[in-house]
Amino acid sequence: MPDIRHTPRAPTRAQKLAPGESIDAHRHDDHQIVYAGTGVVAVTTDAGTWFAPGTRAIWVPAGCVHAHRAYGRLELHLLGLPARTNPLGLHTPGVLSVSPLLRELILVWTRGPQVDSPERRRLRAVVLDQLRSSPQQPVQLPSPADPRLAAVCDLLHDDPADPRTLSALGVAVGAGERTLSRLFRRELGMTFPQWRTQLRLYHALRMLADDVPVTTVAHRCGWSSTSAFIDVFRRAFGCTPGARARRP
Quick one: which of 48, 84, 121, 229 is 20 to 30 A from 214 by CA? Predict the structure, then answer.
């Protein structure tokens, strides 16, 4: 990524972003927690895109070049941690579950005055304890490198409801099913069905952030029924699509 902005300290703050607004590629010497109080946030690196509604947060390790993008009206909460403080033990980006308690802690921490005080130190200790116990979640769209695999991924990005099998998509891009299946596992670390589910969840979150009705989202993203969509969404994000849409 050209002209990458370098900020030694990762900011701890809350800010509002309009739908579609973005923060260009940059990096910090600190780790950072990225959380969407409202709306949906997507964090993109060279390795792929991580995305999260209010039940999830994104971990960005120190030194990782990343960009943010808002879907819906995003209240973005950024929490910086020194590079020596790594409560998750992660050195690559990841998504973690956010409990109701952790959510409130993040909101208080990022909205409050950034001054050193006994109260802030106690709050920080509780935040770190909660982060250490937060389960990690596989909510990511890895980026393909092989042009044949990239062509398949582009087709489905353009139409996440495309029902074609991997074999049929292979015919469209001039690659065999076995080759593509191997590439999905080797480059993206998941099977084709797993990747397609992640893609559909990504597009579903974007549509829900724009207040598209749940039934319409299910249809546009290729689920066979609204109930099937709700089930997959609940397992991925810990809430129903309707509950996510109603978050303040």
Answer: 48
Report the distance separating Cα 33 and Cα 110, nearest Å.
11
Beta-sheet pairing, 48-52 with 136-137: unpaired
Q: How high is the pLDDT of residue 46?
A: 87
Residue 7: CA count within 13 A, CB half-sphere: 11
Q: Which one, of 141, 158, 152, lies nearest residue 201 by Cα?
A: 141
Measured at the CA of 127, the angle between CA 124 and CA 130, to 5 degrees, comes to: 150
Residues 6+ apart with CB under 8 A from 235: none
Q: Which domains does the chain have, with CATH numbers?
A: 5-140 (2.60.120.810), 144-245 (1.10.10.60)
Q: Which residues of the chain have pLDDT under 50?
A: 1, 248
- Pairwise CA distance, residues 248 & 76, whole Å: 13
Q: What are phi and psi of 53, to 5 degrees?
A: -90, -165
Helix, strand, or coil (residue 17): strand
Q: C-alpha angle with apex 79: 95 to 83, nearest 5 degrees?
A: 85
Q: Where are the alpha helices (DSSP H) in the chain?
A: 100-111, 118-132, 147-158, 166-173, 177-183, 192-209, 214-220, 226-237, 241-245
